[in-house]
Structure formats: structure tokens, C-alpha cells
Amino acid sequence: MKFQLYSATKQNHTGFVSCVCWLNNELVVTCGDDRKLLIWNASAHPEPIRTIQLPIESYPTSIDSMSTVNTNVSSSIDSSSSSFSNFKSDPQSNQLIALGVSNGQFYLFSPNWNGNRMEKAFDAHADAIIVIRWSNDNTTLATGGEDGLIKIWSRSGMLRSTITVGTLPIYALAWSPDSNSLVYGNGNQMIVKSLSPQSKSIEWIAHDGLIVNLHWSPLNGHILSASEDFRVKMWDGTGRLLFVSVANTTAPSSVSWSADGDCFAISTFNTIKLHDSSGACLFVEKLASEGIHSVAWSPDSNQLCCVCASGQVIFSYVVEKTFESGVWRVMNTSRRSIKVTNCTNDFAEVLDFRDSINRISFAYERLVIVTTSQCFIYQSNNWTTPHQFELKNIDVWLIKQSQKHFLLMNTTNANLYSYDGRFIRMFKLSNMRLECIRSNLVSLNNKTLAYKDGINAQTIHFIDLDSSKSATQRDKNVISYRHVLPVLALKMSTDEKSKDQICAFMDKNSDLYILSINGHQRTNLKAFKLSSMIFDFIWHSEANVLVSLHDNHNVTLWLYPNVVFTDSSLIAEVLLNISSDQLTTSNSRIEDFSQSQLTIKRADNVRIHIPVNPFVVLLHNLKSDGRWQEAVKMCNFLDKTISEVDSIDRNVCKALWATLAAMTLDAKEFATAEVAYAAINKLDKVLYLNRIKSLTIPEVVSIELELVSGNVMEAEHYFIQKGYILRAVMLNLELFQWKRAMELAEKYNAKFGGINIESERHNTNSNDLIEENDLPRDNNISLIHLVLACRQNYLKNKRKSENLKEFQALLNEIDHVIEWSDVEKRIVIMLSWINGMCRNVHNTYHGRTQNIYMCVGQWQVASTKTSPSTLKTNNYIRTDSSEYHCLQIVKKFDYENYLASLFIPSNEIRRTAFALRAFNVDLSQIRDLTKTDNLAQIRFQFWSDIIDDIYKNKNHFDESSDKTYKNFPVAAELQIILSKSNLSKHWLRKVINIRRETVYLQEFPFQTLEELEKYCESCFGSIYYLLNEKIIENSTDKSAGYRISLDHVASHLGKAQGLTNILRGVKHNAISRRCYIPNDVLINSNCTHEDFLRGNVNESVCNAVFEVATNANNHLKHSIKLLNDLKGTHGVEKCIYLPYIPIKTYLESLEKANFNLFDEKLYRKNGYLPWKLWWRSKFFK
């Protein structure tokens, strides 16, 4: 952008010109020391159209006119007329001009004043008025004088309040966007003062010199300050510095924001500068005239007027505003012409118009131009014959476009038009204000209009465009959402093929939220927080892909934001992070996101183009067309070619699989969803989806999907609403929400027919829906008895007594408590009927099955041969328990052993395995989490003391006692496990000592391969020795031969696992310059530790890896042979050795990579590992 300057042919003022203001988009008023008030038509004549000699003796110092935003001042003046008689102000508008003079008085008069006598004169200050300003709502006037006072006046001239500042003159003041506060300069200080008497002012030192001018933008909320220290600064409303200009050659005389807040102008002695909203300088012009005193923008932000000390008045028009869409570029070349260019060829077209151009919008390759009297719509394939229509008394402040229609907006109305110029409907926006008519506070797509409330900054309104009636705040097709903090920006999703209506918005804390307004959710809108501390965000122009700009040169792509409403556990999986050193996030803005390119405009006005993987948009296109099989093929293709194509990243593949999983789950394409979840190793979801596929009642499927999403309360509500009372009660029992379960039982007990504990299941068609009240009622028990039975069974298994007052009172009132074993089988049958799954329940009852349970959004897989009562009580883990903590530690840091341990059939042994592995993980992390040797020794000693203390108090341990290690969950879980078992203390101490003595004290601790194998057996084999002791405790075979056979397997598998982990950890350990490859292996292979630390790939390094891997493979084969020699009746002990499968898989992959440890393929997650473990576990049982 730049200014196109022009001025009058002769000098019309004979003295210093100090005052300038705009009446509307065309008329300008100037006034100076010659006491002449000149009115100019900026668009038609370079000469004043009216001259009024002021009937005053003092000199004018400041002038301001009421804003025309909320008035109806006509701006259509005949360009050929040089008379002011065509200009008429609507009597209902009551527009006033305020003029301050040097004797401390100010005058109020209308634009139609005849110049005879000043009727409204007011004594304001003892000395001259330096600055006078109307508030943005045109109800209040503020004056600042040389006497150091600021006075607030009503529009009729009555004094409301006086702000005593001090002895320094008030050279500058400005109103806040909401007209409730003032900012003014006091020397080199800036002060924000609220008109509320109880509020406290904000003060800060802003400059090194006197502040001479201030302007507070009503749209973007930023404050500009000019000072005699030769600098201009930009601030927010709280005093946070946003921008500092370079030092000018002379002191700035004036600063002014454009009405739309997109740019600002700075004037010095003989220079005019144009800056964008971030502070980047766009244009500089040096003038021949001297002493530019003040500048003022027109209400449409297209023109600027400058007045000079020499008496000259200069006008300028903003040209070369550039708009782009597709391959087209549009730029205004003058007040009435626009140039259209095709960037791919030499095509260029100039569009000329009769009237001045006020607004331009170019999106979706459709150009919308608003002049003072007409609206023109151009298509990119036809620049010669536009659609056009007349604008009758419509003052357009904003144009918003969607793919099907566009919106012309002002403070009272929003008119919707089609691209053929047809008027569709009008919306009455009663709460809209000027500061909310901004592009980032109004959003439009094909179905919904969203805008921020002009009075309540926390509220967003959504208008359904498909409704046939005109919308107001009271209509039913207007939905409102109230946030906890003020909203700073909002954008609607733009995918026309998608049924999802999603709004993303940023609040005052710079947090990004997402809001869905689809269908039934409109009555109870809930926002979900995606990210914090963002700078900007934007939707893709064709797909529901959201991108946000963060600190640290980081851009985040949310490939499917709907995942928060579908499966919130995938949030971290469906995002991609893009980093670029070219990004400077301070004041940077995202300009465009279309096709496979993201455009970011930096603060220095440089555009950065960031490529985005094209498969992201392609996946959304496949989703819109319902081509799910092609989507699976695409993701599989990317998996196979990840190492062959440089542009395909491993993280992109994983994110696309997760996106496909969320998409298919949302579309209820369960078969495809299973494939996608399996690809990202979500075995629990795969099994649960497999169960959902068996459900035949659509409404039950929808409710179960709510549970997948973690919406437990919604699922319970729907169960009750559809009449599935028993399922709602059982849901709370599974979540250990005892009080809620009893509350439902008491509330709906009378409506529930009871549970028959004697009758067997009836022969019923599996597709028939059986109501709970239709079940047999012989020997029925109520819901209250059911909850009590489940609670007592839980307390019995946990060895606890009742501590809930509600249940204690009920136990005193009833005669006896029904045994849980008497009702559990009947409940399974009833729930199967309710779900439409009347199959052979006895297969699930007595066979070996996989069961999935949810706890506050977390899922656990458990396999068992026991009854459902054991499943419901023992396998279910509380999220605040030490057992859950250990499980999560192993899952995060030892994922392969976590998966393998899930398939241990015995609940008790499985819990022991997780506790021991969590203990081992904690010890292995000591070196990485401590900075000095002493701290590490203290940590090891801590564990030694804990083990001694546990065994010392083993026989007197009480789980409910306060003396347990509640602040150390791993220690607490070990205490529970060891109190119930006779595990040897020797193996636990051996793990601690070997890690302390061998690993920490040396950087390269192993001299020979034999030493390394000894270390591996102590660290990893000891865990298997302890599990063997647990197995023998529960086994009927306690023979010495059986024990020896198990210990041989543990020894060899421990060595194999340890050696494999040493190889897998070489790349990670090299970061801290550690290498555990033995010296004798290095000598035999003619290489050094430094080769491994630097990641060198050569024949010597591969030979060293081969020698270690060969030993690991030998131990692995020996352990598998010993394992296969065990009797087939032993299934539990074989399942604890399932970790041999990931060891074998890694060694095979290492061989395929020619023993190159640094091959990227070795560090990928194996998506088939859960299936291999599950398949192998079937042959162990």
C-alpha cells in the first residue's frame, strides 16, 4: 500500500492550520489561525466547497466531529457540484462538531450551521484547550487544557466530571473502544483512567520525552503514542509494549489509526509514513510543504487529510491494496479503478467505476466491490460483465464471503446476497458495535453466521442461514455461547462438503478453543480447549483443518479438530508441528491457508510460504466423498514408502492414521476404524469397536460411542432417556461411582421391574429389543439390592469395611444383602438383551475372553478365565491408585513389556509384573533425572532403605494405614505386592546394587561381553526370577525340577532382553556420551566408542553390533526352546515370557538392516506387535 497525494491549486488558509476532521467519507473540515472553517469535498474538488468565517476572537486549537458510524449522514454528493447545498444532515442523527479555542472555551455546532453566531459556547478551562475528543458512542466529550485538567462533558455541554492531573498541560488524550476509559499523556507518562470512580488507573513511563499525540483504535484496541523523543510506540490497553518505531529525523507531530484498524499514519515536520497494524513501514513520502501539524483518516479508511503550519491542506488516497485468491491478484490503482492480474500468464484487466471505491473483498475467486452507491460482483472467468445492484442508504463497513454467498455489514444490519446479486435476507444485529465490525470477529460459511456480541465481549452469536425468517437476538435460529473470558477472534470452518459446523475462537488469554454447533448440540454448547498461548489461527479454505501460530517459531496443524468430540484421546495424535527459523511470531499473522500451502506474513511485511503435506487435504476429500477404502490404501501406501520418499515423514503417517480413525469413528464406519486404530497401536479401542459392531440397536451404538469419547455423563443421560436404567446403574458401578449409582437406583427403583435371579435366559431372537420391564419377575431383586450387593462384593475383595454413610444406613434398614454371585450372571444376560446381543452368554462366561473397561477416559485390557464378578472388581483400576500409577509408568517408558504383561491371565501375577517393571523403570531413570553423582547415590540409597523397611514391617502391614508410601506410588505398590507374597529380597537388592555399581560410576563400564551379560541377567533376569517365585506360590507343582526349568528360561531371556536393550539404547545414550558396548567386542571389530557416539556407520561398527546381537539371539533361542519344553498345562508361566516376541522382532529387523543401528526403520513402532502377542498368548492357554 501507499499514498497517492494531491492538494489544492492554491493556498486557501492564510495562516497556521491546526484542526482537521471528517464529516463522512467525502467531506473534510479544516480550521486554522485565520479563523476560517473550510469544508472540502475530497473526492470531487481540490478546492473548498464552503468557507465560513468563525465569529470568534480566539484561535481554534482542536476540532472533532461525531462518528458517522451510528448516524445517517448522506455521503452521496454530486461530484460535479461545487456547492455545499447538496449536503444535508438527517435531523434524527444530531451530528455535532466540537471546536476548542485558545481562550479555554469550546463550541458545539451542526454541519449545517450557517456561520452567523455561535449559539452553544461553553467555558471549559482557565487556559487554552489543547485537545478535544468525542467518545466512540457519541454521547460524551472530553477536553484537555493547558491548566492540566481533563473535563468530561455530555453532548449537550453539561459538565459531568473533572480529572485533576497536575501542573503539566494535557497535549494528548484518546477514548477507549468501549468509551468507558480515557488514555492521556502527562509529560512522558501514559495514564489509562476509567470513568468509573471506584476503578484504579494504569500508569507507566512510555517515552523519554513529552507525549504530544495519542490515538486509541476502536477496532483493534491498540494505542499509538507520539513523543518528542522522535519515536512512535504501540501499546495494548494494559500498557504492554507492542511496537517501537525507529527514531525519526524530526519529532512526530501526529499519529492516527485508520478507521478499520488495519494501518496507521505518522506525520513529522515534512514526512508522511504509512504503517500496517503490526508496525511494518509500508510507505514514506517527503513533502515540499513544511510543518505538517495533524492528520485524520476518513471513516472508510481510504483517504487521509493532512494540515500544515504553512496553511496548506494535503489529501491522499490509499492505493495498491493487494488481494489474492487462487492465481488471481487484485490491486486498486486509483480512487475509481482496479487492476486484475493473472499470476500464471500475462493477462491483465483494468476495471473502472463511476464512484469512489469504499470496500473490496476477494475470496473464492470472486471479487466484491462496494462503491458509494453500488455493489459489483465479478467472477474470475468473466471480468467484463459483473452482477451489480444499487445500495440504498447502506453504509457498508465490512464484507464477508463464503463459497455460496457474501455479507454486507454495518452496525445495525447484515444483508446476505448471492453471487448473482440476488438479495437473500437481512439480519438485525441489535448488539453490534463499531469495535466488533472486524474481519476476525465476524465469520461466515455456507450455513452459519457467527459474530461477537458488541456489549458482552464473552458472548458469540450463531445465526442459521437456512432459516426462512429474519434473524434477531430473540429468534430461535440464533444460538448464543457465553465464554468465561472476552473473545478476541473467531472463525467458522469453511468445508462446504462437511456437515460439521465448527467455530474456533481465541480468548483474552490467547487460548484456542473449538466449539461445535451441530444439530442437537446447539441447545447446550460446550467449548473444548485445544491449545494455549497462540498468536493467530486460520481454517483451511476447503477442508476442516485448523492451523495455529505459536511461540518458538512453531506452527501447529490440527488435522481433524472434531476429534475432541469423537475421541479426545487422539488429540495429540492428529496434530503436526512445523518449525521454521524464518518465522518471527511477534506480530506475525497467518494470511492464507489453501491447497497445500500456508502463507504467514511477518512483522517486517515479508510473506513466508510453508508447504503442507498434500495427503492431508486428500484425506479430507476422500472423507467427504465417503471413499474409506481408498483412504486406507493411501495411508498404507505412505507407510510402505516412508523411507523412499523424502517428503513423507513418519509423524505425518501416524497423524494421518489417527485422523482416519477419528473420521471413521465419527461416521460410524467401524470396520475402517478398526484398521486405523490398529495402525496406531490402539488395541483396546480395536477390541471395543469390535464389540460395538455387534450391537444391533442404533441408539445403543450412539451411546456406546459417547463412552468412547469419554462423555460419561452424556452416556448416562442417554441411557436413562431411552429407558435403559439397568445399563445406567451398571455404568456407574463400573466407574466406582457408588453414590451416583445408589442415587439412580433409589430414583428409578419403582419404574424398574427387578432382576430375576433364578430364571435362565429365554429363547429370543437376537434382533428383538427386550424392554427391562418385560423380563420375568419371579424372585426379583430391586436396583437398590443390586447396588448394595456390588458394593459389598467390592469391599470384600478389597478387605475393607463400609465407610459411606448412605450405604451404612441402608445396611441397617434391610434384612440381608443378596450375594453378588447370585445376580451377576443374570445381569450379563439382561445387558445382552438390552444391547440386542442375545447370544450364547455361557461362552463368555466360562471361556477365555478379552474384556475392556473404561475409567475416566482411560482404557484397560484384561484377559481372564474367572467370572465377571472378578472382572468388575479386581481388573478395574482406580486412577488414583498406586496400581494405576505403575501401569502408566510401564506404559509410557516400557511399552513393549506393558503390552506383553496385559496378556498375563492371573490378575495377581499381572499386578506383580507391573509393580516390578515400574520399580525397574524408576531405577533406570535415576541417571537421567539426577545431575550429580551424590544425588544419584542418595536416590539409590532411598530405594535400598525402602526395600529394607518393607520387609521389616511385612507381617504388620495394613493397606489402609497412613504409614504406607502414599507419596511414592511405586514403593506403595511394592509394599502391597510384597505383603501378599513371599518374594526374595535378594533379587530386589541385586537390581539396585548392579545399577548403582556398574552403570552410574563409569561412562564405558564393561570390559568384556561376559560382564555385560552378567549385568543384563542381574537387571532383567532378576525380574523374571521374582515372577517365577510368584508363579510357584500359586502353582500346584512346586517341584525342584519345575523351579529350575523356569529359572533357566528367566536367565537366558533376561540376558537376551538386556543385550537387545543395550543395542536399542545406543542412539539415545550417545546424546549424553555414554556407550555400553564392551571393550573386547570393540577391539575384535577394530572400532571405538567414539564411532558409536558419533553415529558412524561402517563395517567395523556393524561387526561389533553383529557380535552382540548374535549373543542375544543365542540366548533368545535357548530360552524359547526351554519354554516350549515346559508342559502344556502351564499357561500362566509362559505368558510372563511373552516379551521374547518384541526381542525376536527387533533382532530380525536388525539383521534386515545389515546390523546398522542407526537405520530409521528400527525406531518405528511395530503396529502388529499387539496382534502377535495376542495370537501367541492363545497357544499358551
TrEMBL record:
Classification via SUPFAM superfamilies: Terpenoid synthases (SSF48576), WD40 repeat-like (SSF50978)
GO biological process, one term: cilium assembly
Residue ranges of domain IFT80 second beta-propeller in the record: 321-615
Compartments where found: Cell projection, Cilium
Span of domain IFT80/172/WDR35 TPR: 656-750
Keyword set, alphabetical order: Cell projection, Cilium, WD repeat
SMART domains, A to Z: WD40 (SM00320)
One Gene Ontology cellular component: cilium
Protein origin, superkingdom: Eukaryota
UniProt main location, coarse: other
WD repeat residue numbers: 122-154, 204-236
InterPro entries noted in UniProt: Beta-prop_IFT80_2nd, Isoprenoid_synthase_dom_sf, Squ/phyt_synthse, TPR_IFT80_172_dom, WD40/YVTN_repeat-like_dom_sf, WD40_repeat_dom_sf, WD40_rpt
Protein's name in the database: Uncharacterized protein
Lineage of origin: Eukaryota, Metazoa, Ecdysozoa, Arthropoda, Chelicerata
